[in-house]
Amino acid sequence: VLYDHRDELASLVVKVVQDLPVFRTLVELEKTQISNRTKKLFTLNSIFEGSRELLGLPRGARPKSLKVDQKLVLKFWKQVAFRFPQWTDVLDGRGTCKQLRDETIAASGLLMVALGLVGRELMITDPEGWVQRLDGLQEINWERDNPIWQGVAIHNGRLSKRREHVLGTAGLIMKKLGIQQTIFEPVGV
User: Fold this and answer.
1) Residue 150 DSSP symbol
2) From start to end of 98-183, where are the E strands?
3) What's the pLDDT score for residue 62?
4) Distance from CA of residue 161 to its chain's centroid?
5) 130-177: per-residue pLDDT in tens?
C-alpha cells in the first residue's frame, strides 16, 4: 500500500495515517504482518482495508472525490481513535503493544476492517448523528476472553481475518451500538 503511488485510495490512506498521531506512531507501514516484538499496533494494510470498507469501494476502485473522501476517512478514524483510549495509553507509554495485542481484539486488523464496515453503516443510517453513535464503542468489552467474541472474531482460539469473521465482528459491534443493518447480514450473530 505504501509504495503504490498510482492507487489513489492507497495515497489517501497514507496521508490519513500521517495526519493522525496515534496512527503515525502505531501503524506498521511496510510489513503486512505484525511481529510479536514490534512497537506497532496495526498494519497500513488493515487501515487501508478498513478505509476501503468505510467508503464502500470494491477492490481496485478509485475514490469518488479524493479531497472529500480523505476528509471523511480522517474524521472517522480520528473519532474512532478517541473512543479507544487503550491506543493512546500505548502511545503515551502507559501500556504496551504486545499486552494490548495479547489481551484484546482492540489492536487487530480484523477490528479495523470491521470498524470500516460499521462506519459505513452508521453514515448510511444516521448521517447526522454517526459521530455520537460511536460513543458506544467505549462500552464494548474488547478483551479476548470475553465470550461474545468466541466464534465471531475468535475461531479455534485465534483471531481470524476470514471475511465471515470480519462480517460477524462488524455485525456484533453494530448490534451493540443499536444500529439497524442495511448493507449485509453478518455471519454468526
Assistant:
1) B
2) 154-155, 158-159
3) 78
4) 12
5) 999 999 999 999 999 999 999 999 999 899 989 999 999 999 999 999
Do residues 39 and 87 touch, judged by C-beta distance below 8 A? no
C-alpha 142 chain-centroid distance: 13
C-alpha grid cell, residue 18: 500521517
SS3 assignment, position 42 = strand
Three-state DSSP at 119 gives helix
**47 and 29 in contact (C-beta within 8 Å)?**
no
Determine whether 132 is exposed, middle or buried from the number of CB atoms within 10 Å of its CB (0-12, 13-18, 19+). exposed
| 15, β-bridge pairs | none
Q: In the chain, which stretches have pLDDT less than 70?
A: 1-7, 182-189
The Cα 113–Cα 71 span in angstroms is: 18
Residue 24 in grid coordinates: 503515525
Alpha helices by DSSP H, the chain: 8-19, 21-26, 44-55, 66-82, 85-91, 97-103, 109-125, 130-133, 163-177
* CB atoms near residue 33 (< 10 Å): 9
Give the closest residue to 73 by CA, choosing from 11, 160, 140, 148: 11
Tell me the C-alpha distance between 91 and 109, whole Å. 18
**Cell numbers representing residue 72 in the block:** 471523511
Cβ neighbour number for residue 88 with a 10 Å cutoff: 15
